Every structure is written in structure tokens, then in C-alpha cells.
């Protein structure tokens, strides 16, 4: 049966704070989850999310788009890249990441159903 459901990301279903530098706003509609991550300058996964996740590296598969700021991602195998505004990303599990520069990095991400959610 067709349906329509919507929720504005500015009034998310939940907000998951990072340890010190930002948060993830999360909207879930049925089995679809979208997050808007605001990663403030100084944010680093291994410092701000690792204590929440309890894993050595990020084990979430991220798919999304960066709309502002810059973030560098380093995979567990050493591969590294930086994303910025307009970059569409697919980041497989097994990585660390950090904000580059003095501007918050904002990413929309469909891979956040369990991201930064206390275990």
C-alpha cells in the first residue's frame, strides 16, 4: 500500500551527541534512516565516537554527501582521502576520520541507524 511520510531534519527524531565535538541528527522513516552529522573543528572519530562505539575503528558503512567543511578518512589498511563540499562518499567499515580546518564538516549519511548510539 503506498504511503507518504516525512520529517524535517531540523526537528529530528533523535540527536546523538558526540563526546566533545558535534552531534548526529537522525530521522527514521520506516526502514530508512538518514543522519545529518555536524562534526565540529577538533572532532576525531577515535576520540569523540570510539568511546561510544566501543570498537577500535569505525565499523559503520557510510553512504552520503558532504555539504560543508572537510574531513579526512583513514582506512585501517592505511588508505586515506579527504572529502569536501559536494563529494558523495562510500566509506566501508574499518576507518578513523577527523575534521580538517576551522569549519564544521556537515555530512548527510544513510549509514547511521546504529552510528554513535550507545551500546
From TrEMBL:
Residues 1-22 are annotated as: Disordered. Residues 11-22 have a biased composition (Basic and acidic residues). Residues 1-10 have a biased composition (Polar residues). This is Cupin domain-containing protein. It comes from Nocardioides vastitatis.
Amino acid at each position: 500500500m503506498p504511503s507518504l511520510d516525512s520529517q524535517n531534519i531540523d526537528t529530528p527524531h533523535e540527536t546523538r551527541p558526540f563526546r566533545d565535538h558535534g552531534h548526529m541528527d537522525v530521522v527514521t522513516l520506516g526502514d530508512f534512516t538518514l543522519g545529518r552529522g555536524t562534526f565540529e573543528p577538533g572532532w576525531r572519530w577515535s576520540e569523540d565516537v570510539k568511546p561510544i562505539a566501543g570498537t577500535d575503528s569505525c565499523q559503520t558503512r557510510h553512504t552520503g554527501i558532504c555539504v560543508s567543511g572537510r574531513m579526512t578518512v583513514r582506512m585501517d589498511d592505511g588508505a586515506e582521502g579527504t572529502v569536501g563540499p559536494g563529494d558523495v562518499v562510500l566509506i566501508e567499515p574499518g576507518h578513523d576520520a577527523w575534521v580538517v580546518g576551522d569549519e564544521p564538516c556537515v555530512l548527510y549519511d544513510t549509514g547511521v541507524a546504529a552510528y554513535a548510539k550507545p551500546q
